[in-house]
Amino acid sequence: MKLTTTVLGLGAVIAAAPLAAQMPSRTGQDERPTPAATPAPAPVSHGGIITHQPKLSNGAGKAIIELQEAVNKNDTASIPAKLAAAQAVAKTPDDKYAIGIMQLKAANAAKDQAGLAAGLEVMLASGSVQPNEQLGLYTALASTYTNLKQSERATAAYKKVVELDPNNVDAVAGLAEAQVAAGQPAAAVALFQQGIKLQSASGKAPEAWYKRAVSVAYGAKLPATGQLAREWVSAYPNAGSWRDAIAIYRNLNQQDVEGTLDLLRLMRAAGALSASADYNLFAAAASDQGNFLEAQKVLDAGIAAKHVDPASPVFRDLVAGLKAKQKPTAADLAVAAKTAANTKALIRIGDSYAALGDHAKAAEVFRTALTKPDVDAPVANLHLGMALAQSGDKAGATAALNAVTGPRSEIAKYWLLYLQSHA
Predict the structure, then answer these.
(1) Helix/strand/coil (H, E, C) string of 229-282?
(2) CA-CA distances (angstroms) from residue 92 to 7, 55, 67, 276?
(3) Of 141, 196, 146, which is closest to residue 43 (Cα–Cα)?
(4) What DSSP assignment string belongs to 134-200?
(5) Which residues sit opposite 38 in a β-bridge?
(6) Which of 64, 186, 237, 287 falls between 20 and 30 A from 179, CA-CA?
């Protein structure tokens, strides 16, 4: 005996709702990375679920056909009793599979997500599922549990989908989101990385995958956050990715004024200064270091870009203070370099040459500083690499930046990334 109907069109009923990846919130004194939200990788979409026609046993056939008739008529009042009667006499895997189909169809009509999950579980547990049906059924089950916000069950179902189809990027995304919902961010990030790798094998993963991985890692303060952010910038080196990656690094790693300046200089070089707060912090930090020339140039650039209103309370005092400060010329710097009291003063002179746009001369001063016994080598090598990167000496910049050790080495990695994508 065979059923006369099959389940059709379940894909539209159990499609997963899109998710949004919230970018990290403001931390400490640093700005909130933008954009405020980024889309998660596309949710799994399902086509129709393949079902074979089960053969019903003589003992259970009548009860299952009566259940089928009630479901086809959408006789919701009698379906529970008919279902219980059919379950009581079901003997074979095909009997149980057929009952699962009817549960699924009834739940489909009622838009009952829990009922859909129950029907799918019955079918999968029946022992009658064919190999070509497993992927569709487990995919539908995973999506349904996602809709029900049952993260542990969604995780188990998605794991089965990935086991059946390791290259199924949608399933990897679904499993990753289920792990996020289950409070397992490290596992989720590993899955986002897996999905990125899968897509990169035949092209390029969408930027949303990188954003989502960074967002989850940042939210959980995972050690891999910085590397993930750099991978995002490497794949999509735009102003937004640069700004967010640097902001995330600054939020997670407290910087002194020197480190803050070096990161802001990178943002400027990458074209990522885009808010009045960026210009305010940059100009204030440069002034704190005595580089009034650089501070003035930053403010002038902000005014030209209409990010700085010199008459606003935020900038008014800074603008007035800088007007009163002497700005050195190249001749002044040449004299100062000969009489510098120590290497710290030499590095400041090199920074001023860089502010003038003479990166070759700045590099010369930084090299001189590196020969001095009191040099802070990580700072000098970092600034040498920055100057060479902006002067177009890729090989020299790479060598200098790779020579940076200690905490500054992380900043050097961001400058190396800039070098790869710009110089």
Answers:
(1) HHHHHHHCCCHHHHHHHHHHHHHHCCCCHHHHHHHHHHHHHCCCCCCHHHHHHH
(2) 20, 9, 17, 71
(3) 146
(4) HHHHHHHHHHHHHHTT-HHHHHHHHHHHHHH-TT-HHHHHHHHHHHHHTT-HHHHHHHHHHHHHHHH
(5) 21
(6) 237
Q: What predicted TM-score, i.e. pTM, was given to this entire model?
A: 0.81
As to burial, measured by CB atoms within 10 angstroms (0-12 exposed, 13-18 middle, 19+ buried), residue 242 is buried
Average pLDDT, integer, range 301-327: 94
With the CA atoms of 226, 232, 234 and 235 taken in that order, what torsion angle do they form, in degrees rounded to the nearest 10? 160
Q: Give the type of residue at 180.
A: V
Domains of the chain, residue spans: 256-327, 328-423
Q: Which residue has the tokens 């400490």?
A: 28
Q: What is the CATH number of domain 328-423?
A: 1.25.40.10
Q: What CA–CA distance (Å, rounded) separates 142 from 160?
A: 9
What does the pLDDT look like over 79-134, one tens digit per residue?
999 999 999 999 999 999 999 999 999 999 999 999 999 999 999 999 999 999 99
Token readout for 9 is 């069109």
The residue with tokens 């699924």 is 104
Give the helix/strand (H/E) hosting 39.
strand 37-39
CB atoms within 10 A of CB 173: 25
